[in-house]
Amino acid sequence: MISAPEPPTATAAISGARKNGKSWKPTKTAFRPKAGASRSWEARLEQRKALAATKLREKEMKEEKEAARQERNRVLKERREAKVEKERYEQLAEKMHAKRVERIRRRERRNKALKER
Q: pLDDT tens, 54-97?
């Protein structure tokens, strides 16, 4: 009772000498690094929520930093304007009487307040 040899199946790997003769090269395989390792929907949602929270926090930090920068610039600008105005009144005081300079200063402040309304 001699049984017939079974034909080779598609799943059986045939190994032997390579046809092109490059026996030192590794055999090629399909490149699919994450073929069966897909994440669950909940895990993806969690990651999206974490990313959104991080972006929101970064945006808030940038806004705070920008507000602080603008505040510093505003204070610096006001100081410079006050310094220039003080120097101008000092130059006027050298030429005119002190009471007249004070009247001019009050009038200019009134005009400035009316303009800002």
A: 999 999 999 999 999 999 999 999 999 999 999 988 888 788 78
The residue type found at 109 is R
pTM over 0.70: no
Q: Is the dihedral of CA 100, 106, 112, 114 positive or negative?
A: negative
Which of 88, 115, 94 is closest to 105 using CA atoms? Answer: 88
Distances from the Cα of 16 to the Cαs of 23, 69, 70, in angstroms? 10, 73, 75
Q: How far apart are the first and last CA of the chain?
A: 114
Under DSSP, the state recorded for 23 is T
d(CA 38, CA 14): 31
